[in-house]
Amino acid sequence: RKYQDSQNESRKQKDSNIKKYLQEQEKTTSKRNMLEEDKQQITNPKTEDYKKKESTIREMKSIIEKLEKKLEEVNSGNNKTTEKLKAQEPKSYEEKYR
Questions:
Q1: Which of 24, 37, 72, 96 is a plausible cystine mate for 90, CB 3.0–4.6 Å?
Q2: CB 90 within 8 A of CB 96
Q3: CA 22 to CA 14: how far, in whole Å?
Q4: CA 13, CA 16: separation in Å to the nearest integer?
Q5: What are phi and psi of 56, to 5 degrees?
Q6: Closest CA to 96 of 80, 88, 81
Q7: CA 2 – CA 28 distance, rounded (Å)
Q8: In 3-state terms, the chain is what percent helix, strand and coil (to 5)?
Q9: CA distance 31 to 46
Q10: What is the DSSP letter of 98?
Q11: Cα–chain center distance at 97
Q12: Where are the domains of the chain?
């Protein structure tokens, strides 16, 4: 009876040791996989998220360029209209009320 109990106890101990070992292995493999993924992202940054950000930046740059061109056009147009108005304005008070 004592012999059987000791055998059962040792078997339980072995089982628990095996479980612990397997859990540790699982943790290390998951960590290793995470590290591999990180390496992949570092060596190959063209992931989907990166591509989306890159295209958004490109779109923003093109919008900014268009707006700058519009602003230049508007500013040059304003300069022309102010010059026309100045040319039409009478030079002095006497000219204004002749």
A1: 96
A2: yes
A3: 12
A4: 5
A5: -60, -40
A6: 88
A7: 39
A8: 90, 0, 10
A9: 23
A10: -
A11: 66
A12: 2-88
| Token representation of residue 62 | 């093109």
Residue 35's pLDDT is what? 84
What is the distance between the alpha carbons of residues 35 and 37, in angstroms, rounded to a whole number?
5
Task: Please give the single-letter amino acid code of residue 37.
Answer: E
Per-residue pLDDT of the chain (98 residues; tens, 9 = 90+): 888 888 889 999 999 999 999 999 999 888 888 888 877 776 666 677 777 888 899 999 999 999 999 888 888 776 666 677 666 666 666 666 65
Q: Please identify which residue in the block is written with the tokens 């204004």.
A: 96
CA 52 to each of CA 41, 55, 58: distance values in angstroms, whole numbers, following the listed order: 15, 5, 10
Enumerate residues 6+ apart whose C-beta is below 8 A from 32. none
DSSP secondary structure string, 48-97? HHHHHHHHHHHHHHHHHHHHHHHHHHHHHHHHHHHHHHHHHS-SSHHHHT
